[in-house]
């Protein structure tokens, strides 16, 4: 497994980090940590899919992102300056999953003995800033239809399977949060795809019936 987060480090330092990591297993719908919990570990995703969620004003949770193998979460635990960092989001497994967990204390000890490991903090920050910047530019300059299509294609690549129908176990509210749009607006976009028999909708699931047609539809909007 390759993690983009580790690419900035020399191979010896990558191995040092992986050596202090502890493998964790999660079942479907199991919460890794809750928003507000103490941030004490970084997770490198080996397998499975995770949802990053925050509390909405209504008390419900909105999905901001979906993470797949090669990704990471919990990077706030790397910041030595934070005396007791708190989780800013809830992360749960959407499918059976496995991570390599690096405890904040273990990382601090490793950083003290091998200062070059500090680059991991910079890499984590840089990647998060890049992601946020891309989403901000998208929200400002990209239409809702294109944003929804992009999220669906990204999710299809995460969930892709050999069967003819590809099921994404997320609600329209989740997709709306990821696309930065209101649920009614996203519902209108989705029903355009339903009318073309590209997708079908169910309770907390979106089934992609024709992935090639979805990709073609997304590409036509990019043109």
What is the element layout, followed by pairings?
Blueprint: H1 11-20, E1 22-26, E2 31-33, E3 41-47, E4 50-55, E5 61-67, E6 72-73, E7 90-93, E8 97-103, H2 104-113, H3 119-141, H4 144-159, E9 166-168, H5 172-179, H6 183-195, E10 199-202, E11 205-208, H7 211-222
Antiparallel strand pairs: 1-8, 2-7, 3-6, 3-8, 4-5, 4-7, 9-11, 10-11
Helix pairs in contact: 4-5, 4-7, 5-6
Structure description:
With 223 residues, the protein is α+β, with helices and mostly antiparallel strands. It contains seven helices and eleven strands. The protein is elongated, with a radius of gyration of 19 Å.
Average of pLDDT:
88
Order of helices and strands: HEEEEEEEEHHHEHHEEH
In order across it, which strands form the biggest sheet? Answer: 1-8-3-6
Class computed from helices, strands and strand pairing: alpha+beta
Could you estimate the helical fraction of the residues in percent? 40-55%
Strand content: 15-25%
Number of DSSP strand runs: 11
Distance between the termini: 34 Å
Most strands sheet:
4 strands, antiparallel
* Number of distinct helices: 7
